[in-house]
Amino acid sequence: MQWWNDFIEWFYSDAGSHVVSTAIVPGVAILVAGIVAALIGRGSTKRIVSMHDRDERASAVTAMIGAARRAANWNSLSAPEQQQADHIALECDVRLRLLPLAGSNLAADWATHQLTELKKEAVSFSFQAAQSLKEFKDRLIDWQEHPGRAKKLFKNDLDSWAYEESLGDQDLAAQQRAWEAQQAATMQEPDAPAPAAAPPATRPTTDGDS
User: Fold this and answer.
1) TM segments (predicted)?
2) Which of 21, 75, 77, 79 is exposed most, by the fewest CB atoms within 10 A?
3) What is the pTM of this model?
4) How distant, in Å, are the alpha carbons of 175, 186, 196, 198 from that of 191?
């Protein structure tokens, strides 16, 4: 404990007080100020990055909703406008997938499927297109605000559509096999026998004939 006693004695001496007041206290103050500045800068950077990500999400979702609005009016678009709408929809799909959000791929898959359905409803002049467009907008906005809900918002629909498509593929495969079996049976049937030739007709004899 002698070293501690020596330190205390030096600390309260004139030399110790001078070192503390001129070197240690300013050094500690500079260190604390640097830590506080770093924390403030880190917080500001995180806020800026967060605002940038939020703007990117909002921009991507807004663009996809715009693509859905064009799909809902597909029957009223000219051929060049339809081509442009398809190009924009493809870009929106890529932008959604590149977002650093949970479930961005699920959202893009769901949105692409719904765009196709909106086109079909618009071509058939279905009033369902307006309701589907509203649901499309609400789902994407809800996901953009709460990315953790992606599975709840999109995965169930995607699984249901995949199951329906698999059933359709099975029916189509069964029909194809039945058609092939019918064709094979038709080719294996023997040719039908030709009908027997009728006997030649005989002229009735009379008494005058020899």
Assistant:
1) 20-41
2) 79
3) 0.58
4) 27, 10, 15, 21
